[in-house]
Amino acid sequence: MLTKTGRRATSLAIAAATLTGALTAAGGTAGADQVTNFPAKVDLNGRLNIGEPADAPGHIENQYLQGTQVPVVCQQFAGADLWDKTADNTWVPDKYLTTGTDGRAPGVPDCNPAPPSAGEEPRDDFNHQTYGFAKDQCTAFAAFRIADRLGIGDFANDWRGQHFGDAGTWDDAARGAGLVVDTQPVVGGIAVNDVHKVGHVAYINKVYDDGSFDVEEYNWNTPLGYGTRSHVNISDAQADFQYVIHFK
């Protein structure tokens, strides 16, 4: 029986071999504009948006048949599920491709790479959709960031069968949806305050070496409007946050 170390080494070897063959078929090394081919395990419908079900509106029926090569240009998580974007501008679940690994395939880029350490510039580009939450509340703005910035296009109040509801219950709903919820701020994380009235959520756009972070938010200092705060913290204070939800 293989030890854990042996199993991991075997896994990595298979992944490397698979990728080598895929790159040969693709005609080069993987990169931002490079196609890497992986065989489909089953007949696959192409989706127009990441995270969509197989029969979502606009899907392409049996776009990739079992055993045929799927041209992957990049990979991205939608919640806990890894998805592959194809050269045909559609999305397929990674679990249905033979990539030699259960996680990201070596050398295949992230479709939405992590922002630089300097963080993201704050900007009020909110589309004012509700996503099933109250209009122009912190929850609706956070949902917009999740759908638009993090690429989880189907996120809404009932995502993955969970009722996210008021901001103060988002951490519990996120755990129920299988997401990581902890106290480690990251750019792209959703900060949760569950001690202030009905709670509050905000989008983390910058993290500092001392562990403090900047947020973009709605309906905090500006009623039903956009605002930013700098150097907030994880603490029990009413004006701080207690948890971070990791959608990626």
Features:
248 residues; alpha+beta; endopeptidase fold (from Nostoc punctiforme); 6-stranded antiparallel sheet; 4-stranded antiparallel sheet; 12 strands; 25% strand; CHAP_dom; signal; Papain-like_cys_pep_sf; CHAP domain-containing protein
Can you offer a commentary on this structure?
Keywords: Signal. It comes from Flexivirga aerilata. Pfam families: CHAP. Residues 113-245 form the Peptidase C51 domain. The protein is an alpha+beta fold and 248 residues long. It folds into 2 domains: 4-96, no CATH class; 138-246, endopeptidase fold (from Nostoc punctiforme) (Alpha-Beta Complex). The chain has 3 helices and 12 strands; from the N terminus they run αββββββααββββββ. The chain has helices at residues 4-26, 138-148, 170-176; strands spanning 36-39, 44-46, 60-64, 69-78, 81-86, 91-93, 180-182, 190-193, 200-207, 213-218, 226-232, 243-246. The strands form 3 sheets. It has a 6-stranded antiparallel β-sheet, covered by helices on one side. The chain has a 4-stranded antiparallel β-sheet with strand order 1-4-5-6. The protein has a two-stranded antiparallel sheet with strand order 2-3. The relative contact order is 0.12.
